[in-house]
Amino acid sequence: xxxxxxxxxxxxxxxxxxxxxxxxxxxxxxxxxxxxxxxxxxxxxxxxxxxxxxxxxxxxxxxxxxxxxxxxxxxxxxxxxxxxxxxxxxxxxxxxxxxxxxxxxxxxxxxxxxxxxxxxxxxxxxxxxxxxxxxxxxxxxxxxxxxxxxxxxxxxxxxxxxxxxxxxxxxxxxxxxxxxxxxxxxxxxxxxxxxxxxxxxxxxxxxxxxxxxxxxxxxxxxxxxxxxxxxxxxxxxxxxxxxxxxxxxxxxxxxxxxx
Length: 259
Known about the structure:
eleven-stranded parallel beta sheet; 23 strands
């Protein structure tokens, strides 16, 4: 086991230039034995790429009572996300910045192709699980506590899904909805409100639109693995600054207007 110690900016820069073998903490993050930071260099120094191998740029991951989170190489977990204990992430998943996946009381299973976006919280009571079936789409700021999200369901931003609730296959939970304990959302339906109520059945167009959005996140996982970098901010925007590639996926309201 390496022995970690704290180093300042000057020592870090010197160690990096010399490629000396140090085991240290710089700016609150581990520094590898080559002198390069493992996941973060802060705003000091040149751009530092996230290495291609998962073990070299792991997010904040904690083993707990002998259980270690599982993240395959095809999935992207942002370095500011936190995974604890019995967390199993499937293939081609995206876990966003600030997400907290606490498998310290029950198991958290993230199905293949799912996304858990920024600042989501997943947790459960002791012995209970959180299950996201494949292609689940979990929006920013969602809380999932001891619940099941069936295949291809969408959970809107800042919603809360309580213990024992089940979100049916191909269903939508509108943004800022509260789904009470043990509530069952039928497949292919839209629910909304505090507490959640079933509003109507979803159309084929709406379900197809959701699938496009989820595929965007699956592609985002691959793009992030290939190109995400820790770097320093520019002081000003460069001339003719490029933009991200255009996508056929639009907000649902905009898509309806154009169809």
